[in-house]
Amino acid sequence: MAMFDLSLDKLREYRPDVAAPADLVDFWRRSIEKARTDELAASFTEVDNKLAVIDTYDVTYAGFGGAPIKGWLHVPAGATGPLPTVVQYHGYSGGRGFPHATNLWAQAGYAHFVMDTRGQGYSAGGPSNTADDSAYAGLNHTPGFMTAGISDPETYYYRRVYIDAVRALEAVRTSPFVDPDKIVVTGGSQGGGISIAAAGLAGLAGINLLGCAPDVPFLCHFQRAVEITDKEPYAEITRYLKGFRDQVEPVYRTLGYFDGVNLGSLATAPALFSVALMDQTCPPSTVYAAYNSYGTSSGVEVGKDMKVYSHNNHEGGQTYQQDAQLDWFASVFGTTS
Amino acid sequence: MAMFDLSLDKLREYRPDVAAPADLVDFWRRSIEKARTDELAASFTEVDNKLAVIDTYDVTYAGFGGAPIKGWLHVPAGATGPLPTVVQYHGYSGGRGFPHATNLWAQAGYAHFVMDTRGQGYSAGGPSNTADDSAYAGLNHTPGFMTAGISDPETYYYRRVYIDAVRALEAVRTSPFVDPDKIVVTGGSQGGGISIAAAGLAGLAGINLLGCAPDVPFLCHFQRAVEITDKEPYAEITRYLKGFRDQVEPVYRTLGYFDGVNLGSLATAPALFSVALMDQTCPPSTVYAAYNSYGTSSGVEVGKDMKVYSHNNHEGGQTYQQDAQLDWFASVFGTTS
Amino acid sequence: MAMFDLSLDKLREYRPDVAAPADLVDFWRRSIEKARTDELAASFTEVDNKLAVIDTYDVTYAGFGGAPIKGWLHVPAGATGPLPTVVQYHGYSGGRGFPHATNLWAQAGYAHFVMDTRGQGYSAGGPSNTADDSAYAGLNHTPGFMTAGISDPETYYYRRVYIDAVRALEAVRTSPFVDPDKIVVTGGSQGGGISIAAAGLAGLAGINLLGCAPDVPFLCHFQRAVEITDKEPYAEITRYLKGFRDQVEPVYRTLGYFDGVNLGSLATAPALFSVALMDQTCPPSTVYAAYNSYGTSSGVEVGKDMKVYSHNNHEGGQTYQQDAQLDWFASVFGTTS
Amino acid sequence: MAMFDLSLDKLREYRPDVAAPADLVDFWRRSIEKARTDELAASFTEVDNKLAVIDTYDVTYAGFGGAPIKGWLHVPAGATGPLPTVVQYHGYSGGRGFPHATNLWAQAGYAHFVMDTRGQGYSAGGPSNTADDSAYAGLNHTPGFMTAGISDPETYYYRRVYIDAVRALEAVRTSPFVDPDKIVVTGGSQGGGISIAAAGLAGLAGINLLGCAPDVPFLCHFQRAVEITDKEPYAEITRYLKGFRDQVEPVYRTLGYFDGVNLGSLATAPALFSVALMDQTCPPSTVYAAYNSYGTSSGVEVGKDMKVYSHNNHEGGQTYQQDAQLDWFASVFGTTS
Amino acid sequence: MAMFDLSLDKLREYRPDVAAPADLVDFWRRSIEKARTDELAASFTEVDNKLAVIDTYDVTYAGFGGAPIKGWLHVPAGATGPLPTVVQYHGYSGGRGFPHATNLWAQAGYAHFVMDTRGQGYSAGGPSNTADDSAYAGLNHTPGFMTAGISDPETYYYRRVYIDAVRALEAVRTSPFVDPDKIVVTGGSQGGGISIAAAGLAGLAGINLLGCAPDVPFLCHFQRAVEITDKEPYAEITRYLKGFRDQVEPVYRTLGYFDGVNLGSLATAPALFSVALMDQTCPPSTVYAAYNSYGTSSGVEVGKDMKVYSHNNHEGGQTYQQDAQLDWFASVFGTTS
Amino acid sequence: MAMFDLSLDKLREYRPDVAAPADLVDFWRRSIEKARTDELAASFTEVDNKLAVIDTYDVTYAGFGGAPIKGWLHVPAGATGPLPTVVQYHGYSGGRGFPHATNLWAQAGYAHFVMDTRGQGYSAGGPSNTADDSAYAGLNHTPGFMTAGISDPETYYYRRVYIDAVRALEAVRTSPFVDPDKIVVTGGSQGGGISIAAAGLAGLAGINLLGCAPDVPFLCHFQRAVEITDKEPYAEITRYLKGFRDQVEPVYRTLGYFDGVNLGSLATAPALFSVALMDQTCPPSTVYAAYNSYGTSSGVEVGKDMKVYSHNNHEGGQTYQQDAQLDWFASVFGTTS
Question: Does D2 touch chain F (CB under 8 A)?
């Protein structure tokens, strides 16, 4: 479809009205509080990652509902900390995988935490073994995770994932390798959407982030996405409403609590987004909707920048964006040489 | 792909070796016993189906783990029973849907029960509202239901579904509309696979079935299916093993407990199968593997017949097969005019 | 393509100019008169439909040019009539099929007539055996029925089909089971387009209909359809004009006589339409063009309603729409309990 | 699918058993006789083809059932005749098109006749205007021409086409441009299948052909084709039997009268075939079945050769094959310089 | 996608701003001069084309950088000349192929020259053997020819091709068969784009053309094409910029020198364009951009006409357009009978 | 297509006859000698890779014909060497990309060299800037690199690439970071094919390799590949022979010099292969053909092992295979902790 969405000029001004529930902040405050009724219980155990220049720790902590969430903490070999820290969330289907993989930010000299997404992990395989330990996991849904528990914000799958992401921030801050005042969040696609949510919710959890770097983020402006693209995983929602034709209103009501357009508006951390203008999975208008909204309800001036990849589909910037992030994180952390 | 599997001559002789676990019968005996620790609690409440010639009852009973399973019981308007009864299971994604739909066997003068498949129902929508109420529903899996809990037979999704199916037989037998000695099971695709399982397990549950009529059944000879077709939903297994490359052995070990080739061999009820020779979803060799195995471990001579649709894909025989079943059920029930 | 047509707001106001031939009414009056030169010769013969609660009659009558048109008349078992009656036309490729299928409206207590579409029937198979008995059937055309005889309204395939549909109304009115003053027409896709045509032409034939219930109708706003979708069967027209590049004008001239936008405007019966906003086969703008035009040239105020399925492709509302129609027909027939 | 059929070694020995009806020759003798009850009435009218070096005549003659069949006769400008003559039949969907096109054999110095295929012509457009003027054209069929009237050899579409092809030979022999003893037939795909049929039937019509040059011929070994490929137009037959599931036997019985394997076996003219080993439309085994059978029932030794295009799909040899035919026709006609 | 571009009304007024480099004319003047440092060395050798009414000559001449460029010159058999002459360029992948093919304009009585496109020819095969003999051919590029050397106009592939095209005009003018004052250029797709370039550059080379007839031309309004279609070969550019994300500006800068919108504006020869409104390979807006710009910078009034094929994809008008060109060339050459 | 090739049992015994040219070794000896007429001129310049734990050097050396070939040499930060060294070749379309990427083996404590593939690099972008600097780059070919110069082994693209790969070994051995007696080669897909070639040619170049680790290698058993899959890039060969139908023999003759089945048979280094049984790009039979042949002509016993990924397509083992290679390289290098 080449470029199938709004022109870049219009994208830059695209500020759609995405209905934010009146109790958005309350809902999330309650969710964080509820999670905190379970002890965090973060543990860090070194593993043999078979690498010479990176050390890796197997991490477990209590996510939403007390479910054990797994991750890796990578640091430069022999580092003692505290280090500036990058917390990374995965794209849909991904997981922490093998301990020798996905450690770029440790190579750059930082602590690098990667969090499993509960129930997923099947594309990474290996030790991606974090279940969605919840009574709501088996509610009627279409194949995939997008519609699990979607009839109510209380039961929706991403409530658990977003809280896991906030708890990940709490967990890493208990590690001596991590400088608790120097944390950024990042991730691509679903990981980008979770990053935005984490940035929006960090304040409610009393955590100050130094930056948020979502790439071609998913989980933003759901309704627009469903209307403009038929690509997975947004299409899971379409498939659900194709069958449950009478559930359109409650489904979009639920999604209002999880939309990056709404959650990102609460963020205060500076941001570096990326967008791909031929992205059929996360259409550029949904990304710009989140970008243009980002930080606007936070009450403070929030610095933000967008890297535009004009001829890319959902792969986005890849190593180009990593290159930009290497610079930006160094700047944010004050480690620019 | 036109015809892509074995020739009809070879299909008729196709008796592959599908490893049956040594404790197959024990496993299922234990599963039935475990289910029976929850009270069946079958309830029947008449609903307005908006039809003049059929009456419909909303049914709930306790499936595996006590989960409330929903279904409809349709009977000819004004019927009193006991009636010969057809129990129908749904194809993958299906659900009981609206009470005015899927009632052919009541039109034919029988009691007709349709069972929700837990967690599914999204293609039927409407009142298809039976959750997979289980602690295992959120274990790591690929989108869909085929790999949920697949690492162990105890946690596998279809353990719960197959037991729900057996419990459905127990449930309908408590209705005054149902002649408990005149029950047949049927269904297409997944519903066919469940029918075979129900026929195989009925004996373990002390239930005598008069017939089993699986159409283009799914859930048979999993490994062959995965190797010969890339169509959903068998491809969910492929996708799982594509990521979890080291889980091939345990996955196929689990599936051995659920394979229609193994379970059907235990059956004693006469059977009317159907197969489509261009079926890319449930390849004909997987259907014939189940057919040729059907009843062979039961210790009795079991009558069986196969309707072959030579130029059909997974739609199979549709109304042609219904026509054949109308005759066959009448014969089985002794209601042939 | 997700939603690829106009927004719902714009659809509701979409009233395109579809050129109606000056002699539209004359053409159809002449066509009806011509058909009446052949005796209707409607016959009704009971068949064994293998069902207990429905009786079925094999119907034959003389369609356009005297061609024998087949259908089934289903009634509640033992009914005597006269009954409110639903006349149903098939979707493209469909046919009356087996006598045990497609009898929902008889289940609801009405007489239910299903008409074969001449030449088609191949997707239903079985006893779908009504030929397009016409000297024009072999005129140059692309595969399918959409362009057969399209160079002239006199020879176009749908002239014969639309008149068959009107003659079906005449035929059922000769049955003692049918209350001639209580007839509605319905059908999905092509059946919806034929319903609209039948509703528009009924007045010219002196027949009063109580209702018209077209679902995701085909055969409306042809030129828009050809320009906005490449899906079959509208694409048959594209394929014809792709080869016969100099026939654009005469082809659209012919289609003007058959366009649901033009024919529906003549209707006086109340209507219940349905539309699917992701329908790539019958794009929503073509459906709304017909809906917004419906009844507007009839000289009377015509009640009409539209059921919108926002996340559906051409499957439309299915059982949801049946549910709505069960209510609406009961209301139209005055049989609401 | 790259190469998906038998290996070349096996193809060369592939002689499947294609059931030939006992009355095959009688059926065709009767068909030819029936056609001859209509006067041939071949007319030749010069048209302006806008070319300097070729003259073109508009030809009409009575085909099967007396239907007027159109064609062009191209000759070198100013030629007087009698000339060696090439009669060409079209691929499926083709037609004679514009008079300035498809005249290669006239460029080579021969008379070149191209015959319209009744009812088709939509891909060529222009003056491709020969209807399938027959009472059987409207019998139930799937979109396309492959199943029109297929329930009986008497009513099957290709009965009319094959007889048209024989009549074309009779027609051109009445032209002073044509040397009636120096005629070859040729064509690609459907045109190749018709060429084989014409070569097989020519003897029954008392016509002696000098050669038959079918390229990647269609209409050979139907059942194998349907089983091994899902590409159009063979798939029309699959689609028909997918719906009319009970018509498998009569359909293949009818096709036995029209199969190039059976008809070609009657031929006595030397042949130059071509085959493409990656041809998914006309799979190589179906072509070799016809080739290996060609002439084998004729009672004489028939020279034949096969050009093999190893890496081609249905486009076959194109200009390479024309180059080979230029040589072969020159040799057959004795015009080699 | 049916019609996916602007409406015909908007196309007719579509005059986008395609940045023309300031030194466009200089660049091409220099390129022509550079080419002329190699001797033209045009040779004409008769070959046996196996045809009776056409004579064919094997042509070689020095293209850009002195590379030997091959072509055929076809003339009516026995013609002596000078004749009006049609120079034809090929579509992407094409080549001169066999000498018996692609000679329509010689059939019409003209001299007809077909030029090989360097490096291509693989779809025609046979004697399509002209290499892209250049030190720049191996510069980093995506599969295909669209991005070879694209980082600089000096090294871009089409610089060599366009100059080859101008040199072809110079070469044919040295043949006694050719009337040097009666030459038109034509071609479809890439051949259309080259025709426009040749018409634009002819004046710089001191050659007066009588006409330019590009069909569904490629190589026009590159940026729009890349943005609106994902079809090959424009997609080669997309693929290049997908990887080399930082090269967007220099790539479009280079393309500015080669865009038919810019080059065609310099043309003075009358033109007959064609466009297909469903053309996904060369979208109609890119064709109209070139058409509306054609001749507008030439300082003279340039006659031009557009044939619109409303229901065609990239096949465009085919024989219909040939028919129109037969008339138009006759008119341009003054040979209308 | 799921599993579409031979069964694993048959793959293990698959030893096809791939014609090796009589002068295979001579050809390559001459090619190496020819390359050595250009000075190697390897240069190493440190660059800022923005990483803390890895140092990276920009490498240039003279490949075949003296063309400047680029690469990166990564080493653990502060390492002095000599280190065991991994030389990696890229998959088709790949390139060295950014200096912060593709450095796993340096993370593991080794020197890690990545070589640009001349002319390619477009999927990696960034500093992937090595041209195919050769007079043969512009010979007629289909889009891509597979057929460039394929008519003769002297001019074939992969002659240059394979020699570049051997020269890379020579180049890294001049670096003080590299232990010249501890080098392994590796790569996936095309990189696997080049690895096999490098292992086969290393001996001719007087270089002793410690190991060869090709993953899902490409460039093996070309003819089988072309016949069994239609996926790119093998399909480039099909496309070439589809047009140049008369070049089958010379093309496969050329490929005989480059086939991994032939070149790998010369290798003496132990090998760790991987294969994916659902690999449609590099079908398993082509991989096993190379594996089973590997080292068999070398005159010595060569240790080799195969990792089988049963449910994977061309992605193969990915991090699982990296994990296996981390162990295997440590064992080969004697660095196992």
Answer: yes
Integer Cα distance of E289 and E304 in angstroms? 14
Is B116 part of a structural domain of the chain?
yes
Residue B214 is assigned to a structural domain of this protein: yes
Q: Is C3 on the interface with B (CB under 8 A)?
A: no
Residue span of the structural domain in which D178 resides:
23-332
pLDDT of A174 over the 70 cut: yes
Establish how many alpha carbons lie within 13 A of residue C99's alpha carbon, considering only the half-sphere containing its beta carbon. Answer: 22
Q: Per the confidence metrics, is the pTM higher than 0.90?
A: yes
Q: CB of F312 within 8 A of CB of B242?
A: yes
Res A180 pLDDT > 80: yes
Tally the residues of chain C: 337
Taking only the tens place, the pLDDT of each residue in F65-102 is 999 999 999 999 999 989 999 999 999 999 999 999 99
Binary contact (C243, D137; C-beta < 8 A): no
Give the Cα separation of C65 and C88 in Å (integer): 21
pLDDT-derived band at A144 (thresholds 50, 70, 90) equals very high
Could you give the CA distance from residue C50 to residue C101 in angstroms, rounded to a whole number?
10
Residue D305 is a catalytic residue: no
| Alpha-carbon gap, residue E88 to E165, rounded angstroms | 9
Where residue A273 sits, what CATH number does that domain have? 3.40.50.1820
Asked if E228 contacts E4 with a C-beta cutoff of 8 angstroms, the reply is: yes
What ipTM did this prediction achieve? 0.97
CA distance C172 to C184: 12
Neighbours of D17 (CB within 10 A): 7
Helix A24-35 crosses helix A157-172 at what angle (to 10 degrees)? 60
Residues with Cβ within 8 Å of residue A68, at least 6 apart in sequence = A60, A61, A62, A130, A133
Q: Which residue has the higher pLDDT, E229 or F19?
A: E229
Domains in chain E, number? 1
Tokens of B34: 């475990």
DSSP bridge pairs for A83: A178
Cβ neighbours for A207, distance < 8 A, ≥ 6 positions apart: A166, A169, A170, A173, A183
Q: With a cut of 80, say whether residue E1 has pLDDT above it.
A: no
Q: Does residue F179 form part of some domain?
A: yes
The DSSP bridge partners found for residue B213 are: B186
Tokens of E307: 């044939």
Q: Kind and range of the H or E element at B171?
A: helix B157-172
For tokens 């132990």, the residue is: F270
Q: Annotated binding residue at F92? A: yes
* F147 to chain E: closest CA residue: E122
Domain-embedded: residue B185 = yes
* Binding residue ranges of D for substrate: 92
Q: Is there a contact between D226 and B309 if contact means CB atoms under 8 Å apart?
A: no
| Bridge partner residues of D71 (DSSP) | D59, D115
Task: Give the whole-angstrom CA distance, residue D306 versus residue B140.
Answer: 57
Q: Are B191 and B124 in contact (CB under 8 A)?
A: no
Strand ranges across the sheet with D68-76: D43-47, D54-62, D68-76, D111-115, D83-89, D178-188, D211-215, D271-276, D304-309
Q: Exposed, middle or buried by CB within 10 Å (0-12, 13-18, 19+), for F21?
A: middle
Q: Which residues contact E283 (CB under 8 A, 6 or more apart)?
A: E4, E5, E224, E225, E228, E229
Pairing label, strands F54-62, C271-276: unpaired
pLDDT tier at E335, thresholds 50, 70, 90: confident
Say if strands F271-276 and C54-62 run parallel, antiparallel, or are unpaired. Answer: unpaired
Single-letter code of the amino acid located at A79 = A
Under an 8 A CB cutoff, do D50 and E126 touch? no
With 0-12 CB in 10 A as exposed, 13-18 as middle and 19+ as buried, what is E248?
A: middle
Q: Work out the angle at residue A108's Cα, subtended by the Cα atoms of residues A106 and A109, and round it to the nearest 5 degrees.
A: 65
CA angle C38, C41, C47 (to 5 degrees): 145
The Cα F268–Cα F276 span in angstroms is: 24
